[in-house]
Design a protein that fits this description.
Elements lengths: L1 H27 L3 H19 L8 H35 L7 H23 L9 H39 L1
Length: about 170
């Protein structure tokens, strides 16, 4: 029964991982104008909620304000998208119990790093876009942070589980 659960979990996480990779690929395939419009719309939505009076500003003032947030919004998006990639790669690879925990964690990180590099190479072929080493670093940091949090959490949970099991065994 446990083996069926593990295989189903692995299949689900693998499908989600591939879907997330496809989402990142589709966003990277946007030309510069489309990409600016996408991030601009997100910034506009956020500013409408958190910036009192944003909707009352002139179109020129709105455009200037949106433009001032483009860089940070784009880099935050990179970090966040790859943090989720880190989550999905970790959950997929962690189910292979025949590999040591450290190797599974390293494989998860390697998947994210390789995809970050390939994503930036992909952008070299998209009109108006560029491949940036800085973006590979931001992407990988997002992935690595999530993988580290998950790995430490897994270690901590395993330690608690072993302790509870030991206490129950020694109570009687």
């Amino acid at each position: 029964m446990e083996e069926i659960f593990i295989k189903a979990f692995r299949l689900i996480t693998c499908v989600l991982l591939i879907a997330w990779i496809a989402l990142i690929f589709s966003m990277s395939a946007q030309n510069a104008t489309e990409s600016d419009k996408t991030s601009g719309n997100v910034i506009k939505s956020v500013l409408s909620v958190i910036y009192p009076g944003f909707d009352g500003l002139s179109e020129e003032s709105k455009a200037e304000l949106i433009s001032s947030f483009q860089f940070i919004a784009r880099k935050t998006a990179h970090f966040s998208l790859y943090a989720i990639l880190g989550l999905l790669s970790f959950l997929t690879v962690i189910s292979y119990r025949n590999l040591k925990f450290g190797l599974r964690t390293a494989l998860s990180a390697a998947i994210c790093l390789l995809y970050a590099v390939s994503d930036e190479v992909h952008q070299l072929f998209v009109p108006g876009r560029s491949g940036e080493i800085r973006d590979v670093c931001i992407d990988f940091c997002g992935s690595l942070l999530m993988i580290t949090i998950l790995a430490l959490s897994a270690r901590y949970i395993k330690k608690i589980y072993k302790h509870v099991k030991w206490v129950r065994r020694n109570e009687g």
